[in-house]
Amino acid sequence: MGENKHIKELDDFSKKYIKDIDTEKLSPEFTSELMKKIQVLNVYKVQPFTPLISKKVWFLIGLLLVAILSISFNSNEESILSVPELDVTFLNKFQLSNLIESVSISNTTFSIICLFGLMIFIQFIYLKKYFESRIH
Amino acid sequence: MTTTKDQLYINKVINGDASAFAYLVDTYKNMVFSLAYKMTKNKEEAEEVSQDTFIKAFKNLSNFKGDSKFSTWLYRICYHTTLDAIKKNKKNNYTFEINEVTYNQIQSVETILQGIERKERSVIMDKCLMKLPDEERSILWMFYYDELSLKEIIEVTNLSEANLKVKLHRARKKLLTIVEKNIEPEMIENYGRK
Fold it and tell me: Is B28 on the interface with A (CB under 8 A)?
């Protein structure tokens, strides 16, 4: 009973004197300053980020790259990109007829170009995620 | 449960009307600030923490289920945001010897406090409260000043009921001890040497 009385006394004491404490006041511009930040956040929320190239298109590009790479590795021909024979006699006028016929890229060079493209593609995804997280 | 008016504004914000959030800020800013100030003991830091609290609340408003009071949910964000800020600054922890409190002790302290002018008494009590460890100070503040129930404080702090009751009781005893030490000169003057 004595112990409970002390708890009650302490409780009454704390209630009476803590409630009596004068508190610090917030600065008057608090709400307006905060709402400016909230509005900025809200603008970003309302205008969601829309990518230039959609995920579907990126997937197709990736598939195409993989397909070309696999073809180039499996191909027995010296070059997979030799341009088919075209009637380019009309180019005689411009003396360019030999130019196209002579275009030929080796398998190795082509594979390197494809791999380079793939590396940029992967880095692009990471860079995009990095900048998005910074904005958030 | 959340008040109908609070819920109305919460729904407006969720539906895209960010300016409606100003109502919630104005309603609860003093409550948030007073808790943040009691925990950080610094006005500028408390204002910063209060802003962070409201920004977090705004971002996560769609996660507010409405099964507790909005104020309790906000308190929870404030409490944990402030704790993170305090941890960064690594404030000193005070250690006190807690002796059993006697009835005479409480009466003596109360008699002295009653004789002190209200404004001065408020300053003394505030200084004494600030000397308590952060967690105990915040619990006393939420329970006695903001008048949160034990259940609400449990929700805010994640403490168990038993743990909370122990901390609350210890905090009250410590506060009395600190107040007694602070007003000791007046006590000696009134009652003579112990």
Answer: no
pLDDT (tens digit, 9 = 90+) per residue, B14-49? 988 999 999 999 999 999 999 999 999 999 999 999
Compare CB distances from A19 to B30, B126, B144 and report the shortest one's residue: B144
- Using only C-alpha atoms, what is the Rg of chain A? 36
Give, as one character, the DSSP assignment of residue A34: H
- Structural fold of domain B103-191: Arc Repressor Mutant, subunit A (1.10.10)
Nearest 5°: the CA angle B83, B60, B42 is 30
The residue ranges of chain A whose pLDDT is under 50 are: 1-3, 136
Which residue in the block uniquely carries the two structure tokens 């929870």? Answer: B76
Domain ranges (residues) in chain A:
2-45, 55-135
Interface A-B, measured as beta-carbon pairs within 8 A, has a size of: 102
Q: Give the global pTM.
A: 0.68
Burial class for B33, CB neighbours closer than 10 Å (0-12, 13-18, 19+): buried
- In this structure, what DSSP letter does residue B131 have? T
pLDDT at A85: 57
Q: From residue A69, how far is each of A18, A49, A77, A87, B77 by CA, in Å? A: 75, 32, 14, 29, 53
Provide DSSP, A59-98: HHHHHHHHHHHHHHHH--SS-S-PPPP---GGGGGGT-HH
Beta carbons of B81 and B52 less than 8 angstroms apart: yes
Note whether A15 contacts B: Cβ–Cβ < 8 A. Answer: yes
First and final CA of chain B: distance in angstroms?
A: 51
Q: B94 and B131 in contact (C-beta within 8 Å)? A: yes
A47 touches chain B (CB under 8 A): no
CATH number for region B4-92: 1.10.1740.10
ipTM summary value: 0.83
Q: Are the C-beta atoms of residues A37 and B133 closer than 8 Å to each other?
A: no
